[in-house]
Amino acid sequence: SVFENPQTASINVAQRIANLIKKKQAINATAVLGLATGATPIGVYAELIRMHKEDGLSFKNVVTFNLDEYYPMQPNAVQSYVRFMNEHLFDHIDIDKNNVHVPDGTIKLEEIPAFCLAYEKKISDFGGLDIQILGIGRTGHIGFNEPGSAPNSGTRLVTLDDLTRRDAARDFGGKSFVPTKAITMGIGTIFKAREIILMAWNRKKASIIKKAVEGEISGEVPATYLQLSENVEFILDAPAASDL
Ligand code: GLP
């Protein structure tokens, strides 16, 4: 769907998340959310915080799994996705921090494979992701699944694309300070979510959105794999949809 602006689009996505949470509360069940970082979802988180503060929406029955984290990364670092999530959402709602999961950027290299398997297992132990929200990078990455990612890939350590590191340079004070690696859920992990919402705002995203939605399905643009799923919805503002 195409919305006039990111605000109305973000409110729409936040309402769907809130509806899921309330539906689960009514049957004493857990809502399992797959969350994303970057500028794109900030408005969704702001609206969820507003719903918590003004409408009494509770997150006590919510479990979250974030898509990715840089590697290596200390959780208290300015660029850390742990810190991002705390500042933009978790610190402002009544979620139990034990229910929050972000890939751990501090573990030893040799422990990563076991960590990634455990991350996948935890998601399935909670019954799988009810909703996964996504942004999109200019390489066509979702999470940090860069060009070359396999459609059945799981959570793993990946090497960041040069363009991704250039785009992150501002956050790190120069490209050379951007980590070369990240831990990310795989395309296969994302695909298992019962509902996938990819959001994009801004003219800057128009060409990659065109490729993702209309382009040939290929590992060269990992987001094109989303065309294969029936549970995917693209939520765009008019500028991001302008090449479609
Ligand atoms: C990073 C994140 C992605 C995000 C992308 C786009 O690479 N790992 O999950 O989708 O940036 O970021 P933004 O939303 O700031 O455009």
TrEMBL record:
Superkingdom of origin: Bacteria
Domain Glucosamine/galactosamine-6-phosphate isomerase intervals: 6-227
Residues spanning the signal sequence: none
Recorded coiled-coil stretches: none
Designated name of the protein: Glucosamine-6-phosphate deaminase
